[in-house]
Predict the structure.
Amino acid sequence: MSAISLRNVKKAYGKNEVVHGVDFEAAAGEFVVILGPSGCGKSTLLRMVAGLESVTAGDIEIGGRVVNALEPRERGCAMVFQNYALYPHMSVADNIGYSLKVAGVPRSTRETRVKAVAESLGLGEFLRRKPGQLSGGQRQRVAMGRAMIREPLVFLYDEPLSNLDAKLRVAMRVEIRRLHQKLGTTTLFVTHDQVEAMTLADRIVVMNKGVIEQVGTPADVYHRPQSTYVASFIGAPGMNILPARLGAGSSLLLLDDGQTVDLAGHPGGSDLPNEVHVGIRAESISLANHGRGVRAKVHFTEELGSSRLLHAEVGSTPIIVSSKDAGIIEPGAEVNLELPPDSLHFFNPDSGRRIAH
């Protein structure tokens, strides 16, 4: 197992810089997910670790050695791509064992290792088949087997589940996590899917426009987001963000429509700046009796089976409430919402960064 360290890593194409001084470290044996929307630089970062893209500035270390000048084959990385990248004319066995064949490993040894890897991935009965005769999930497992058989220092996954249907993605997440527990190889996994990130990661690196917004455990980024971007991006639905200001000389928070929230139960609430953005998770909001809480107008309801999502507005600000107890609420109805002070998060409205207390 080898640690991966990135120090002030930048990438530019001509004058256009797409990765702006990234710093983070994946400890030996850790499963780190790089999460962000399309175009944020996450796949470019992974390709620089693999050696498929050059580094414009900064250093990448794998196992304590700087690998900037090393060829991909010299870095000890095995990469699993979104499109599988299998040889269509080769059997499953030949695809999995191809790197060993190129390395000159004797055929008998190669066949033994291919069989062992295939059995661990549930591919033992498919070794003679071609990739075209397999399902999407089976082809992805072949790609994983081809990476595993090299016994790499580092696994790199570039959105490997994007081409699979929803049910198969869930099954493959379980498979990838199980393999990591078994092999313990340091892993970087790139995805735009925050559910994948939350379920797979030991730690998540949240990226936005070529910079890191936050690095932390899934619980950290969900319960203590360090910016409005992370708060809105993590969670289904994302955190509600409401503009507000603090009433002069009081602990009352004034929302943009003039309604108030009492901050008496929030530590340090009275020390907030005058202008803030208030964040609260949908599941932290409850329906209140008439005359209490904050009034909101319901636009529509999403039925999720185990709960309902109420889409409403407080003044002109959208708000989503997750409730297991809410009955059918007609569009246009007015409800009262309880916003518990100890569930509120505060952000600077200019920078979007979390206000610490």
Remarks:
- Residues 232 and 256 are 19 Å apart (CA to CA).
- The mean pLDDT is 90.
